[in-house]
Give the backbone structure.
Amino acid sequence: MSNEDSSRTAPGSLGSPGSIDEKRISAWIGTALTVEGKVISTQDLTIDGAVEGTIELGNHGLTIGPAAKIKADLVAQTVTISGMVTGNVAAASIVELRATGSVDGDITTPRLIMADGAVINGKVDAAGKRT
C-alpha cells in the first residue's frame, strides 16, 4: 500500500473523506446559545437553547429539547416538543408533545400525539392534511 492510499484510509485522520459531512445530518442550537430573529433551515434542527422570532424548516423535522425556551412561531414537516414554546406551531405531518412539553399558542397539524403531563394553552386544528 502506498503512502497516498494509507492517508485516505487512516482512521481518525484529519481530512478523511466524509468525516465532517457524516456529523452534519442535522443542525443544533445548544443550551448556551440564544438566537433572536428568523431561523431558516434546510435540514432537521434540534434546539436546546433559546430562540425568539420565527423558525421555518419546510420539509424537515424540528425537535425542541426539554431545556429549550422558544418564543417563536414554528413551521416544519414534523415538530417534537419537550420544552416550552410560546407561539403558534404548524406541522405538515405531525406534532408530538412530550410529557415535559408545553405550547402557549395554536397548533395546526393533521396528527397530534400528546403525552400525559403535556400542556396546550390554545386551539388545536387537526382537521386534515395541510398543503
Remarks:
- The chain has one helix and 13 strands.
- The first strand starts at residue 26 and ends at 29.
- Residues 19-120 form one domain.
